[in-house]
Amino acid sequence: MIELKNLCKTYHLKTIDVEAIKDVSLTINDGDIYGIIGYSGAGKSSLIRTINLLEVPDSGSITIDGKILVGNDYIISNKELQQVRKNIGMIFQHFNLLDRNTVFDNVAYALKHSKKTKEEIKKRVYELLNLVDLVDKADVYPSQLSGGQKQRVAIARALANNPKVLLSDEATSALDPDATEQILALLKKLNKELGLTIVLITHEMAVIKTICSRVAVMEKGEVVEEGAVYDIFAHPKMPITKKFISSTSVLGKISDLIDSNLDLNKDGELVKLQFEKKTVGNALISDISRRFNVDVNIVLANVEILQSSPLGSVIVSLEGKKEDINNAIDYLKENHVDVKKITKEEIR
Ligand SMILES: Nc1ncnc2c1ncn2[C@@H]1O[C@H](COP(=O)(O)OP(=O)(O)OP(=O)(O)O)[C@@H](O)[C@H]1O
Ligand SMILES: [Mg+2]
Questions:
Q1: Which residues make beta-bridge pairs with 315?
Q2: 210 lines ligand 1 (CB under 6 A)
Q3: How far is residue 130's CA from residue 156's CA, in Å, rounded to a whole number?
Q4: How many separate domains does the chain show?
């Protein structure tokens, strides 16, 4: 378990001070794929780099599996830190491979200080290349690899010493959508098969949605919202979180539709319905249409599968008598559907 408590970090530049981390507290449990999302400059890299003390916080404490790294004017010795770092691998946006070394040597480099014999190192490197499916590239140079392949070499290198934790700083940001998907699938596999705890930072909600179990949203050095990915998607509280979510959902297009002057709710009521876990399968839309004599026009619909559970959101225009519409809305609420009336003002 990784516990960050009240971390603060300010960079002192010539003319100004930059508060990169402001009183951040987070707990990352073993086996989590923990996402940290935020816009550029939010402090994500600064924060993730404190976990292996590449960045030393000004105050606050960091504890990993009960061992204090920093806290209360204490800081771990360099020798102990080396030991701790063996348990924490890290990957980066630009891979950080040694261009003059082959794929094999890039991975073997991480075992330089291990007590392994040459033969043992060779065996381990091939094990790792096998894990990331790159055995056939052992003798080529990084320049001969695609971005996705380079990142897989970096992952093999990061895992060489059997770490419990992998830190990923925008590992898929330089990759095309196909390669991104492959790397995320590989991270998920490593999490599942090796029990690897992964802390990843990203500015894309799609990445969070695809693999994370928990997420923290960072803004201007602070964690402004944190929770299980499903709960955050179902009930985002902060404007920035809502913005990130609408960037991955087709429902974000509702404002475009309204801007295009489509007459969406001439006689009716435009509402957003959210169906969570249990209610997703129920035929509530045809049900209200029959029971209350209202027409239900589906304007936009979005279904996500988050952590194996469905989350459905639909924007509909309800048309009919006002009383019937209100009764239909009450009925939906009674059936645990989250109903929000949408006004044009609210969307903008
Ligand atoms: N070594 C440094 N010296 C001075 N200022 C720094 C340093 N590293 C980061 N900063 C500043 O701290 C703030 C947070 O930077 P950080 O790199 O942690 O953000 P980020 O969320 O990772 O951004 P990005 O998405 O662009 O990578 C920024 O204002 C940045 O300019
Ligand atoms: Mg960064």
A1: 272, 300
A2: no
A3: 9
A4: 2
| DSSP reduced 3-state for 281 | coil
Q: Which of 215, 246, 277 is the last residue of a domain?
A: 246
Whole-number Å distance, alpha carbon 169 to ligand 2 midpoint, is 7
Range of the domain at 290: 251-347
Q: 45 C-alpha vs ligand 2 centroid, how far in Å?
A: 4
Q: 4-15: per-residue pLDDT in tens?
A: 999 999 999 999
Q: Among residues 246, 278, 306, which one ends one of the domains?
A: 246
Please report the atom of ligand 1 found closest to the CA of residue 13: 4
**Residues 223 and 272 both lie in one domain:** no
| pLDDT, tens only, 286-321 | 889 999 999 998 888 888 888 888 888 888 889 999
Same domain, 206 and 292: no
What the block records as the tokens of 101 is 């070394």
State the pTM of this model.
0.90
Residues 154 and 176 occupy one common structural domain: yes
The atom number, within ligand 1, closest to the CA of 55 reads: 1
Ligand 1 atom 30 nearest Cα? 41
State whether 154 and 228 are in the same domain: yes
Q: 14, 18, 39: which to mutate for ligand 1, most atoms within 8 A of CB?
A: 18
> How far is CA 149 from each of CA 73, 105, 162, 169, 179, rounded to the nearest angstrom?
42, 15, 20, 17, 8
Same domain? 292 vs 342 = yes
Please report, for the domain that includes residue 130, its CATH number. Answer: 3.40.50.300
Given 3-state DSSP classes, what are the helix, strand and coil percentages for the chain, each rounded to the nearest 5?
40, 30, 30
- Check whether residue 218 and residue 264 sit in a common domain: no
Residue 55 CA: which ligand is closest?
1
Nearest ligand to the CA of 36 is 1
Task: Report DSSP letters for 305-328, one per residue.
Answer: EETTEEEEEEEEEEES-HHHHHHH
Choice from 44, 93, 244 to test ligand 1 binding pocket (greatest atom count within 8 A of CB): 44
Nearest to 319 by CA among 251, 275, 270, 284: 270
Ion ligand 2, residue ranges at CB < 5 A: 45
Higher pLDDT, 282 or 198: 198
